[in-house]
Design a protein that fits this description.
single chain, about 150 residues, four-stranded mixed β-sheet
């Protein structure tokens, strides 16, 4: 990537959100190296399913490069707060709910069905489930989404 290329969507979003400046400031104050994971959505990206008016970077995870692990939700939120205080303006993937205990595959598939809460609310692709105790996550794809894509 050429960091001075304003025509590149990745560079434009990085500049608009202030992520590079915030990550440098975070490293300078903590000594920690982080990687922020997300997905670009919007015009000219995979048909703009959400009909967003501008390219938007949805943050969904933070990887601690030094520890070689993804942060758990509470630690991720703390880092996002710290980065926000350093100028980062993130759009975070929405958290729909928290639940505890065992859940059946049928219940997971039922939860995966429905409309997105982003943009014009098309049928969602599925849901990502993240553990608050273990450093694990998994995605459940909506059967309705799969049928539509077939």
């Amino acid at each position: 990537l050429v960091l001075e290329d304003p025509e590149n969507s990745l560079i434009a979003v990085a500049t608009q959100t202030g992520v590079m400046t915030a990550l440098k400031a975070f490293h300078a104050s903590t000594g920690r190296n982080l990687m922020i994971s997300g997905e670009l959505c919007g015009p000219a990206i995979q048909g703009n399913a959400y009909k967003l008016p501008a390219v938007t970077w949805f943050v969904f995870d933070i990887f601690d490069v030094d520890a070689q692990e993804y942060l758990r939700p509470a630690a991720r939120n703390e880092c996002l707060q710290a980065l926000s205080s350093m100028g980062f303006k993130p759009t975070v993937v929405p958290e729909l709910e928290q639940f505890q205990g065992a859940i059946s595959l049928d219940a997971l598939l039922t939860k995966a069905e429905g409309k997105s809460v982003v943009g014009i609310a098309p049928e969602r692709e599925g849901l990502v489930f993240k553990s608050t105790l273990l450093n694990r996550s998994f995605k459940v794809i909506s059967n309705r989404f799969l049928e539509k894509e077939a």
